[in-house]
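go over this record:
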Amino acid sequence: MTIDFDKVMLNIKQGYYKYIGSGSGRKAFDLGNGYVLKIAKNKAGIAQNKAEYIISDNDHTKLFAKVIQVSSDFSLLIMQKASKISDILYVWKYFNVSNRDEFLKTQELQEIKKNYRLLLGDFCRKSSWGMIDGKPVIIDYGFTREVVEKHYSF
C-alpha cells in the first residue's frame, strides 16, 4: 500500500479526517480506512515517528501496531488503527497479571525495553494501548530513551 501524503494532508486541511488526539509532539487523525495518521508538531514528534517506524520495521512480537508508511522526513506516519480500550485492566488480563508491578516485570515488556530502549512507564496508561483482532497492541511507542534525552528535559 502506498499513501499519497500530499493528498492526505490536503484532506486534513479540508477536515475530511476525524481528529483522534494529540500529545506533546504529535497529532493523530483517523483516515477512515483502518489506518491512522500521526503528524509531527515539532522535532520531538519527528523523532517519535522515526522511532516507531524503526521499531515496527524490526519487531516480530506482534505487540506493536504496525507502521505502514512514513514520509521521507518522518513528519508523517501511517499506522494500523486499533480500537480504544476502556481500562488498562484488559491489558493486564491478557498478560495474566494483577497489578502494575507484575505487568512491568513481564518477559514481553522486559524484552522490548531491552531491545528498543523503551520507557515502560508509558505502557501503564490505557492511551498507549489499543485492540487489533481481539489482542492488545501498543499504539504509542515512539517515546524511547533517545527521544527523551535529545528532546525533553525534566
Summary: The chain has a mean pLDDT of 94. Residues 5-151 form a domain with the Phosphorylase Kinase; domain 1 fold (CATH 3.30.200.20).
